[in-house]
Amino acid sequence: MPAPAPAPADYFAxxxxxxxxxxxxxxxxxxxxxxxxxxxxxxxxxxAPDNQxxxxxxxxxxxxxxxxxxxxxxxxxxxLRHHGLLVEGQSEQLPPDFLMDVxxxxxxxxxxxxxxxxxxxxxxxxxxQALADTLDAGIEPVLAGYEQLPxxxxxAALRQVLTYYLKKRYLLRIQxxxxxxxxxx
Length: 185
What we know:
- This protein is mainly alpha-helical.
- The chain contains seven helices and no strands.
- The protein has helices at about 10-15, 25-40, 50-70, 70-80, 95-115, 120-145, 155-185.
- Helix 4 (about 70-80) crosses helix 7 (about 155-185), helix 5 packs parallel to helix 7 and helix 6 runs antiparallel to helix 7 (about 155-185).
- The longest helix has about 30 residues, at about 155-185.
- It is elongated and about 70 Å long.
- The model is unreliable at about 1-5 (pLDDT under 50).
């Protein structure tokens, strides 16, 4: 019987920080450097092999945790995965109202694909950016206030963040397509 997979690391607990979409970046950096000094393999070169292996594991965990938590997009995806809301390979459904909002953008992109028009790229890019800005403004209070929410309110906030995350990824694909058309012009 194979051994069970190890539980994924809790990066916030590793640093002793509260779970947050907006962690204290200066504190995160200080903790990262402190853990780096503490666990760097060079400082444990003469210790027992099992201690060396543990320090290497801790140093790797420190690097992975910092890279993830220091980047807002990676941090958001991490928190959603950590709470079981974002599962690799699982297809997520976008809300129908959002799909209706972006249907016009998709139609404009198809037109640009069939009939390249450099003058039409700017308005499509502006429309996509305006939609992204509206999404960002709508989720900001949830992201900023998450840390202070009572535990029983966090699942609803996380579902809002998941919806935002999926919409944002979809819009990023549209924005990349627009950038491709702009580069061709």
